[in-house]
Amino acid sequence: MLKKYIQRANLVERISFTFTNKINVLEKLELINDEKLTNAARVYFYRMPHLHIQMAVFATREKSTFIDISRGTGSVPEMIAIGEDYIKKNIRWRVVIEKSMQRDEIPEIPVVAIREALMNSFCHRNYRSTQNNEIAIYSNRVEIYNPGTFPEELSPHEFIKGGGHSIKRNPKIADLMYYVKDIENFGTGIKKISDTCRNAGVKVEFRIEKLGFSVIFYRDEIHQNIEPEIDSMQTLSYEQRISMILEFCVQPRTLKEIQDFAGIKTRQNFSKMYLTPLLNSGKLRMTHPDNPNDKR
């Protein structure tokens, strides 16, 4: 990881020395203190077991029924990559074919803004907190949360206007991100997210929480009144939904529990789309086949 990091920093010309050996490089980066790794080195280059990124996709606008839940661990760059990949897989993309017949896939939220929000969330989080960085994907928004309070007496609006100055909660981590050009040391992250979303026609909100900070990207909800009913797993393919339901049913579930998990409002549509095909194929079995009306 250290070798790859130095190669990236050399490529963008923000570090002039090359990799020799790990001790020498860590000393030049000022990441060793009293012959021990600094905290910044430990979280940036090492997989700290207590650091995670918590991720979930919810069926509605609320934290009620979830479609997927996952957790990633690793070094800071690895968790940023895990979070970015998770969001990209669970948002909608549209295809645009140019006159040259070139096929472009456009995400509903700019990936540049997503990546910037994730990098900022790890750059400014409170690493002494027992809370995790979080990604919550709802039907109408994507929230990226970090357990790190916003600088007192400042507001995100000042940074959106370009008047805010960089305030580093974790200066060494900020330096490491700067050397590989992941961030700039001028407090431009919020402005970059805001400008990118405005140009893409995406509403974004920066919310100061009691114990942290959230970046919220708003999505267009899809509403259709045609049959079959559009279920809450609309971001997934039918095969993926089936797989999720079967995984959910590893433990015995009631029909109502499965229907709620699938996000289908009417029993008729749920049976037609999921329950009957799964029972007929043998992939799903009744807990009490001799008594189909059993409440269990």
For the biggest sheet, the summary is: 6 strands, mixed
What order do the strands of the largest sheet run in, or round the barrel if closed? 4-3-7-8-10-9
Please compute the radius of gyration using only Cα atoms: 23 Å
How many runs of DSSP E, i.e. beta strands?
10
What overall form do the CA principal axes indicate? elongated
Helical segment count? 11
Number of domains: 2
Report low-confidence residues grouped into runs of 5 or more. Answer: 223-232
Structure classification: alpha+beta
Helix content range: 25-40%
Please tell me the overall pLDDT: 85
CATH topology of the largest domain, what is it called? Heat Shock Protein 90
CATH class of the largest domain: Alpha Beta
CATH architecture of the largest domain: 2-Layer Sandwich
Distance between the termini: 51 Å
Question: Could you give the order of the helices and strands?
Answer: HHEEHEEHEEHEEHHHEEHHH
> Per DSSP, what share of the residues sits in E-state strands of 2 or more residues?
15-25%
Give structural attributes:
296 residues, 17% strand, six-stranded mixed β-sheet, Heat Shock Protein 90, 11 helices
Q: What does it look like?
A:
This protein is α+β, with helices and mostly antiparallel strands. It folds into 2 domains: 36-218, Heat Shock Protein 90 (2-Layer Sandwich); 226-296. Helices cover 38% and strands 17% of the residues. It has helices spanning 2-11, 22-28, 39-45, 76-90, 111-123, 156-160, 171-179, 189-200, 238-248, 255-262, 267-281; strands spanning 32-33, 36-37, 52-58, 66-73, 93-97, 103-107, 133-137, 141-146, 204-208, 213-218. Strands 4-3-7-8-10-9 form a 6-stranded mixed β-sheet, with helices on one face. Strands 1-2 form a two-stranded antiparallel ribbon. Helix 4 (76-90) runs antiparallel to helix 5 (111-123) and helix 5 (111-123) runs antiparallel to helix 8 (189-200). Mean pLDDT is 85; it is low at 223-232.
